[in-house]
From TrEMBL:
The keyword Methyltransferase applies. This is Class I SAM-dependent methyltransferase. It comes from the Bacteria. The lineage of its organism: Bacteria, Pseudomonadati, Pseudomonadota, Gammaproteobacteria, Oceanospirillales. One of its GO terms (molecular function) is methyltransferase activity. It is an enzyme of class 2 (transferase). It comes from Halomonas mongoliensis. Keywords: Methyltransferase, Transferase. Residues 175-288 form the Methyltransferase domain. GO terms for biological process: methylation.
Length: 361
């Protein structure tokens, strides 16, 4: 039997892909360990502390030394944490701490949580691949918590200086006093900030999650915000149930693409606005064409989030299953279909993940 020669170019391509997969496996391990480091407070305990032994770090963080020591091994192998083997000490370089703790402009460890959280429903997602349907929202008990942390980095720091001013004259209207609705508000951190900043305006948040709504209510009560209310509400029939002309401003922050009935929600938002109202949308920056997402800096991750959460949660409701990466082209088509005629799209320098749409009836 003759051996079949493998073309050099083909072998080189296979070797390159093998190296890429091995690297991806290692980086996946780094992400799991990063999520653990974030959730247990290990990064915060290490930041600025100087070299520490595993025992000292465990004591400082209030954790079990054996687990801390093994975690440190993985972080050293992943070149996240440095070590002095002679002294048996470990430290987090300042340039790494800036990206893994709240000391810097963005804590990227927050996003590592998506890997472990979504991996927890893999069995159900595999079942859906074979049988159809979706994974219900109730299977993601920490999703609102993680999304609130995400919002704390993408929305809250830019809300007053960059996001609201995208609609000319909007901050002045909020100062004077208008009615504001945030649909799919989650824990309502943007609403809490706006209600405190603009006491003359009235704010309400709708979300399907009872846990998220309860958290928002508790925070509003603790802050004494009597101009803010929250309501548990299924928005799948909002096109029929929205009160016409009830709000001068409606917002959604990453709230459309995982809805069961996004078209109905958008039509309801249009119905709920006054003739001079504004709909301000933050949603995922992507294309509606797969080949154009090759250059997206977070493309593969966001498709993974879609398959394992946003798309499947919508399908679990008997919904459209629009998905995280529905894209700007489809978003514009849906907004026009809902009745919006003046639509402007912008991106903000601090937020590579989202587009911002300013829509008027």
């Amino acid at each position: 039997m003759c051996d079949i020669a493998i073309p050099h170019a083909h072998k080189a391509s296979t070797d390159d892909f093998e190296s890429r997969l091995v690297s991806a496996l290692n980086e996946g391990g780094v992400m799991l360990l990063t999520s653990l480091g974030h959730r247990t407070g290990l990064f915060e305990a290490l930041a600025g502390a100087g070299p520490l032994s595993p025992e000292a770090l465990a004591e400082r963080a209030g954790l079990q030394e054996r687990y801390v020591r093994e975690w440190l091994g993985g972080m050293v192998a992943g070149r996240v944490i440095e070590t002095d083997p002679e002294r048996g000490t470990y430290w987090l370089p300042a340039e790494h701490a800036e990206l893994l703790t709240n000391a810097g402009p963005a804590n990227l460890a927050i996003y590592a949580q998506f890997i472990s959280m979504l991996g927890g429903v893999e069995d159900e997602v595999v079942h859906c691949f074979r049988e159809g349907g979706g994974v219900p929202y109730s299977r993601y008990p920490r999703f609102q918590e993680v999304m609130a942390s995400d919002s704390g980095q993408t929305v809250l720091p830019a809300l007053f200086d960059a996001i609201l001013p995208l609609a000319p004259g909007l901050p002045a209207r909020l100062e004077a006093g208008i009615r504001v609705l945030d649909c799919a508000c989650g824990r309502g951190r943007a609403l809490l900030a706006m209600a405190e900043r603009y006491p003359a305006s009235r704010f309400v948040g709708y979300d399907l999650s009872a846990e998220a709504i309860e958290w928002g209510r508790e925070q509003a009560a603790a802050a004494g915000l009597d101009n803010l209310s929250f309501e548990i509400r299924d928005l799948s029939d909002f096109d029929a149930t929205a009160e016409p002309g009830a709000f001068e401003l409606v917002t959604t922050f990453d709230g459309i693409h995982d809805q069961g009935q996004p078209r109905r929600l958008l039509k309801g938002i249009h119905r709920s606005l006054t003739p001079d109202g504004v709909y301000l949308v933050q949603d995922i920056h992507a294309s509606s064409h797969h080949h154009l997402d090759r250059e997206h800096p977070l493309g593969a991750l966001l498709y993974a989030v879609s398959v394992s959460h946003c798309m499947t949660v919508s399908l679990a409701q008997g919904g459209e299953g629009l998905g995280t990466m529905w894209g700007r082209e489809r978003a514009l088509a849906y907004l026009k279909e809902a009745g919006f005629r003046d639509i402007r799209v912008q991106q903000l320098e601090h937020d590579i993940q989202n587009d911002y749409f300013v829509c008027r009836p």
